TrEMBL record:
The gene is mtnA. This is Methylthioribose-1-phosphate isomerase. GO terms for biological process: L-methionine salvage from methylthioadenosine. Its EC number is 5.3.1.23. Substrate binds at residues 53-55, 90, 203, 254-255.
């Protein structure tokens, strides 16, 4: 997608410098920074400390991290250590493990002298595959928006609510939940997006709102608890969210607060869709609530907020009383019964073992 008049991916290999580069997302929307990732430790910090975030982007970043490490040390020990070290950075997003397994399976049989070139080639492929997956999610999701728009009066907009950031900043390009929105705008369908602030890290306020604003999509930033009220008053036609891990039976793990949106949507007969590329499906897990590990992040994300002062200074301030600890589960699980459908690169299916098996017969484990 574009920033100003220049096209960017969220991660890329810069040929002139020979470095992997990322958009350092912690500073958005107030500052746009591009940084180099030169060592394995750089990739660890970027993933762990959320310089990059979003399950698909985490996977692509890990793949590039392996490639960079193989150029420095292509030994078996280095390969094994890199898998372990990168895998420990974020426990919930399954794309991380998927990408590391892809790299491991490719590189282990190869002679050490061939590993660096092969690793970088596969990292490029993983990034390109993610872009195409997300583009196709938009193509299939567009049909859902188009059908809703066909029932509207001339000039009426389709109101879409989303939670957290499942935009191009959370992937390599296009985004998951936002891809249908971008396609709808290109198709000339008038849409309006309700953007949840998404406490505690405010990815909706900082990132999704920035994306919508950058691309000229009408939107409003709302507090996390406003969604149900808007649904009650007929101001939401559709909910589309992303996911960090989806089980083989259709349960969806996403940013904390997603479950509450799904409950409100069900109570108000609002369709609730989840957009995901297939590497986000964990075919080894059936029960999301019981089996998916939920990342517990630092309490300062709850007790402090980052913002811009009147003089333009970006700073962090404490909002809680001294001595009050914060609890910070980063994700929750939405049971499949609350999900209207899953939007994937192969089409839309119901959130069920049968629905997923119909789209991905080649991926289902017996």
């Amino acid at each position: 997608m574009k920033v100003g008049d220049k096209h960017y991916r969220s991660i890329w290999f810069d040929e002139p410098s020979g470095q992997v580069q990322i958009i350092e997302q912690r500073w958005l929307p107030h500052e746009f920074r591009v940084v180099d990732l030169k060592t394995r430790d750089d990739f660890v910090v970027a993933i762990r400390d959320m310089w990059v975030r979003g399950a698909p982007l985490i996977g692509a970043t890990a793949a590039y991290g392996v490639a960079v490490q193989m150029a420095l040390d292509p030994s078996d020990k280095s390969l094994a250590e890199t898998w372990d070290i990168l895998h420990e950075t974020r426990p919930t997003a399954i794309n991380l493990r998927w990408a590391l397994d892809e790299m491991n399976a490719l590189l282990k049989p190869l002679p050490k002298g061939e590993r660096a070139a092969a690793a970088m080639k596969r990292a490029h492929e993983i990034a390109d595959e993610d872009v195409e997956c997300n583009r196709m999610i938009g193509v299939h999701g567009l049909e859902i928006i188009r059908e809703i728009a066909s029932r509207k009066k001339p000039g009426e907009v389709v109101n879409i609510l989303t939670h957290c950031n499942a935009g191009w900043l959370a992937t390599v390009d296009w985004g998951t939940a936002t891809s249908p929105m971008y396609h709808a705008v290109q198709d000339g369908i008038p849409i309006h997006v309700w953007v949840d602030e998404t406490r505690p890290r405010n990815q909706g306020a900082l990132l999704t709102a920035w994306e919508m604003n950058s691309h000229g999509i009408p939107h409003h930033l709302i507090v996390d608890n406003a969604g149900g009220h808007l649904m009650q008053h007929g101001q939401v036609d559709l909910v589309i969210v992303g996911t960090d891990r989806t089980t083989a039976h259709g349960d969806v793990c996403n940013k904390i607060g997603t479950y509450l949106k799904a409950l409100a949507a069900r109570d108000n007969n609002v369709p609730f869709y989840v957009a995901l590329p297939s590497p986000t499906i964990d075919w080894t897990v059936k029960d999301g609530v019981a089996e998916i590990p939920i990342e517990e992040r630092t309490d300062t994300e709850v007790t402090h907020v980052q913002g811009k002062l009147a003089d333009g200074t970006v700073t962090e301030v404490q909002i809680s009383p001294d001595g009050t600890p914060g609890g910070n589960p980063a994700f929750d699980v939405t049971p499949r019964r609350l999900v209207t459908g899953l939007i994937t690169e192969r089409g839309v299916c119901e959130a069920s073992p049968e629905g997923l098996a119909a789209l991905f017969p080649d991926r289902v484990r017996k």
